[in-house]
Amino acid sequence: MKKLYSALMTAFNEDDTINESGIREMVRYNIDHNHIDGLYVGGSTGESFMLSTEERKQAYKIAYDETAGKADLIAQVGSVNLTEAKELAKYAVELGYKTISAVPPFYYHFTFDQIKNYYDQILEGLDVQLIIYSIPALSGVTLSLTEFAKLFENPKIIGVKYTNNDFLLLQRLRSAFPDKKIYFGTDEMLISALPLGIDGAIGSTFNLNAARAKAEIAAYEAGDMKKVFELQDVSNKFILALIDNDIYPSLKLVFEEMGVHAGYSKAPMSKPTAQMRAGAKKIYEQYIK
Ligand code: SI3
């Protein structure tokens, strides 16, 4: 059975400090209402690249504590600062995370040998498994099939969170590495990834749209492609409306409509305007209520 993971958001107060109760509420919603298989903590959706090391640790700790073993957890520890990535990995493992993930080092156009060394160093001395976080559109780092093969030589690297719409590479990865886990990360293209044998999906919109995504996976597994298309069609109208309304703050605004106090996004992301609030209310009424 394919797994569905929500990419956990970080709730912030209006002054951009971490809002602990907001994170706890979103974890609970994912477990109690979405019956989610797992949570991806500290990724893009968690706004993690704007957080201090201590804030990133705080988010892992709150999520771990609130989840209390009721769902799988993956801590995204990647950073352009390898010292920070190693410290975060060690911290997450000490907390009890069994799986970590890391975006490749970005910004400086590192060589592949430097990228491989980064992953090997993060994992050195830790009893943990790692999922590569491949998101070329934001990280600027595109890994080839050969490069994935070299990274996968480290037995602790068990797979990839694949946020990339290169379906040729996805098919080649699946064919070459049947034993590695592949979690797809573009929620609006789930329909195209399902036939390529993904092990599941990890995404931001599953925080609110898990039931529809699960129904789509079930329809795919039952061979009902008409239903798969219909469900993805509604999901995509929902996702595109969120993107048009500024996705991360809007996911939180829709949560608020549902009585889940998800807080704010952190600057430089936007604080909600009246127009965004009205947009989120409309999205809630049209696609969630
Ligand atoms: O937290 C994370 O790292 C993610 O959720 C990544 C995930 O792939 C999301 N990508 C980004 C850039 O947020 C998607 O779930 C994305 O929000 C969704 O497909 C809408 O475009």
From TrEMBL:
<keyword id="KW-0456">Lyase</keyword>
<dbReference type="InterPro" id="IPR002220">
    <property type="entry name" value="DapA-like"/>
</dbReference>
<dbReference type="InterPro" id="IPR013785">
    <property type="entry name" value="Aldolase_TIM"/>
</dbReference>
<dbReference type="InterPro" id="IPR020624">
    <property type="entry name" value="Schiff_base-form_aldolases_CS"/>
</dbReference>
<dbReference type="GO" id="GO:0008747">
    <property type="term" value="F:N-acetylneuraminate lyase activity"/>
</dbReference>
<protein>
    <submittedName>
        <fullName>N-acetylneuraminate lyase</fullName>
        <ecNumber>4.1.3.3</ecNumber>
    </submittedName>
</protein>
<comment type="similarity">
    <text>Belongs to the DapA family.</text>
</comment>
<dbReference type="InterPro" id="IPR020625">
    <property type="entry name" value="Schiff_base-form_aldolases_AS"/>
</dbReference>
<keyword id="KW-0704">Schiff base</keyword>
<dbReference type="Pfam" id="PF00701">
    <property type="entry name" value="DHDPS"/>
</dbReference>
